[in-house]
Amino acid sequence: MVKTFMTIVVGLVLCVAGANAQDMLQVEGTTPDLYLTHTVKKGETFYSLGRSYSISPKDIATENNISFDKGLQLGQTVKIPLNNNNFSQKADAVTGNTPVYHKVEEKETLYRLSLNHNKVPLDNIRHWNNLTGDGLKKDSYVIIGFLKSGGGIPAPSAPAATPSAPVTTAPVSTPPATKPEPVPAKPEPVVTKPEPTRPEPVTTKPDTPVATPPATTPAPEPVKTAPATGSFEQIYAQQTSNGKVTTEKGPGGWFKSNAGAGKYYALHNTAQRGTIIKVTNPLNGKYIYAKVLESIPQIKQNAGLIIKLSDSALEALGTSDAKFYVELNYEN
Fold it and tell me: Rounded CA gap, 130 and 12, in Å?
């Protein structure tokens, strides 16, 4: 059922948001010829790419020496120019736009990175990437500007002031069948005090047996090898003990949650409910373990995301961006 649902969703996304199919936007070239590369997918035209990347369709044709009347071919790789019309490197460009990354090369300095990318101010790079110095790590990804929002690349959702209604319904208590940790609504009555006249009203303390869910709780999610108790990290280790691990890389987002400190939850389209996902921020090496609650709601602002995390995970991953690049590992 999940695979069928995903097939339908992917088809819709490809039709309306071609650029979103790219895992992340990575800049190529150097000043003044900065550009992105895009692999043409079924149904895409100069016009749809122009909407997606906020640029004139004829500019794309000119950049690639392609006749505008000839059109595009399936699987063709085209250059998307980055210019003043669709690319911003201002300090306040974070809001509503999509980050563009540069992959750090060996011995590359922050100053050299700035020179090669329109002399973007060093303070802007430090601010966007939470850097405190000028050191850069080889093969890490650094934000060097933002693609202005177009018809096919929706802007990341704003921080807590404007989370979408469907997403805010995914706190800890939403899918009780998949979360053995929450407080049970009706604990089993105590049977160790068989007074015939007045049994002790133990049901007035619903928060007492948090660590011991009742044996009668239904468990619709597929049976996992890990026990209900233990940290998410321990459960992840048991779920992946067979060595079969799936890895994904791409943009992630967040949703508002009332999850307790140190407990992180996720929305994901392919991992089964109850799966523990290791989420790593490749920009700084920080990682967390998050439990899958349900699929990502198929709304415009979620297009292209491979995961959404509860808001408490942002600080643990060392980011404050509405959309950020992550690497996922979980049971195959």
Answer: 35
Sign, Cα dihedral of 216, 221, 225, 229: negative
In order of 56, 128, 138, the CA distances from 133 in angstroms are 38, 13, 15
**One-letter amino acid of 324:** F
Element spanning 57, H or E: helix 57-63
| Burial of residue 76 (number of CB atoms within 10 Å: 0-12, 13-18, 19+) | middle
Amino acid at 134: D
> Is the sign of the CA dihedral 278, 279, 283, 285 positive or negative?
negative
Three-state DSSP class for residue 288:
strand
- Tens digit of pLDDT for each residue in 94-111? 888 999 999 999 888 888
CA distances (Å), 56 to each of 34, 63, 88, 225, in order?
Answer: 16, 11, 16, 53
3-state SS, residue 125:
helix
**Segments in the chain forming alpha helices (H):** 2-16, 46-52, 57-63, 110-116, 122-129, 232-239, 312-317
Q: What is the DSSP letter of 302?
A: G
CB 321 within 8 A of CB 93: no
Q: Looking at the predicted structure, is the pLDDT value of residue 12 above 50?
A: no
- Dmax (CA) for the chain in angstroms is 91
- Give the total residue count for the chain: 332
Residue 286 has phi, psi (to 5 degrees) of -75, 150
Cross-strand pairs, 250? 326
Tokens, residue 247: 């890895």
In this structure, how many other beta carbons lie within 10 angstroms of the beta carbon of residue 304? 22
Q: pTM for this structure?
A: 0.42
What is the Cα–Cα distance from 324 to 253, expressed in whole angstroms? 7
172: tokens are 């800890």
